[in-house]
């Protein structure tokens, strides 16, 4: 069964969404992320994707207090990302209550460091963030498309023991135009050992049906929940 993973993105301790990762295209949805997380939990959600956007800009965690608050007051399994550039930052995230962390841009820039995290914490706790545009990895806070093919990037990490990947199509993120189902289908066929969490563009329940049919391990839903194109009640049949 595909896991349903709502997202909370944080700026200034508030729940926001960006479009294509652009800080100039920010919408604030709720000033109390804990209440949002509690609503998710009350509707049967088990997982949460928590992103520290301030941390991503500062290159170190900024909203650890929010992580700690949600972890202490819900039973959600939280994966935390944003600003995790050092061994100390990763330890801080786990100490604050994260069950998993997402290694984002650092997985491209410093693969040896991320490989050490995989060895230290285990492949169940370290998710590799594979942000992509077209068929290549996106870098520089999503503003650039590298010449590093997405499939090669993931294949390399599989060989070093990684198994969990959040694959975000940055050209679709926050635009409510549907996910990159063809890309995920291709990745599932070519990299069957990768546990792929689809992210970016999920807009309707039909999108979730398609992703489940492809066989992805999970789907991250952000703006669709906040804009109401997918309701929490709609998700009930995926949570059995």
UniProtKB/TrEMBL annotation:
Q: What is the lineage of its organism?
A: Bacteria, Pseudomonadati, Bacteroidota, Cytophagia, Cytophagales
Protein name as catalogued: 1-(5-phosphoribosyl)-5-[(5-phosphoribosylamino)methylideneamino] imidazole-4-carboxamide isomerase
The family database entries (NCBIfam families) matched by this protein are listed as:
1-(5-phosphoribosyl)-5-[(5-phosphoribosylamino)methylideneamino]imidazole-4-carboxamide isomerase
Keyword match Amino-acid biosynthesis? yes
Molecular function terms from GO: 1-(5-phosphoribosyl)-5-[(5-phosphoribosylamino)methylideneamino]imidazole-4-carboxamide isomerase activity
Name the residues annotated as catalytic in the UniProt entry: 9, 131
Q: Name one Pfam family in it.
A: His_biosynth
Q: Which CDD domains match?
A: HisA
Q: Where in the cell is it found?
A: Cytoplasm
Q: From the UniProt record, list the coiled-coil ranges.
A: none
Identify the SUPFAM superfamilies for this entry.
Ribulose-phoshate binding barrel (SSF51366)
Q: Which GO terms describe its biological process?
A: L-histidine biosynthetic process; L-tryptophan biosynthetic process
Q: Which EC class does it fall in?
A: isomerase
Instruction: Please give the catalytic activity noted in the UniProt record.
Output: 1-(5-phospho-beta-D-ribosyl)-5-[(5-phospho-beta-D-ribosylamino)methylideneamino]imidazole-4-carboxamide = 5-[(5-phospho-1-deoxy-D-ribulos-1-ylimino)methylamino]-1-(5-phospho-beta-D-ribosyl)imidazole-4-carboxamide
GO CC annotation: what is one? cytoplasm
């Amino acid at each position: 069964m595909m896991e349903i993973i709502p997202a909370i993105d944080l700026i200034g301790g508030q729940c926001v969404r960006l479009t294509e990762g652009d800080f100039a295209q920010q919408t604030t949805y709720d000033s109390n992320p804990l209440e949002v997380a509690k609503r998710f939990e009350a509707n049967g959600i088990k997982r949460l994707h928590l992103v520290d956007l301030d941390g991503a800009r500062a290159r170190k965690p900024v909203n650890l207090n929010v992580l700690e608050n949600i972890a202490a007051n819900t039973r959600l399994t939280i994966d935390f990302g944003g600003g995790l550039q050092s061994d100390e930052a990763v330890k801080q995230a786990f100490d604050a209550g994260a069950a998993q962390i997402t290694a984002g841009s650092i997985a491209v820039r410093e693969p040896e460091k991320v490989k050490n995290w995989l060895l230290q914490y285990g492949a169940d706790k370290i998710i590799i963030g594979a942000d992509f545009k077209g068929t290549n990895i996106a870098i520089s806070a999503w503003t650039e498309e590298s010449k590093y093919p997405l499939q090669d990037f993931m294949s390399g990490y599989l060989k070093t023991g990684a198994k969990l990947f959040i694959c975000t199509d940055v050209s679709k993120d926050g635009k409510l135009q549907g996910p990159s189902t063809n890309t995920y289908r291709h990745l599932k066929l070519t990299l069957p050992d990768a546990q792929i969490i689809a992210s970016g563009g999920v807009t309707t329940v039909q999108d979730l049906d398609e992703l489940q049919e492809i066989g992805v391990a999970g789907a991250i839903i952000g703006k669709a929940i906040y804009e109401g194109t997918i309701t929490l009640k709609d998700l009930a049949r995926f949570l059995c």
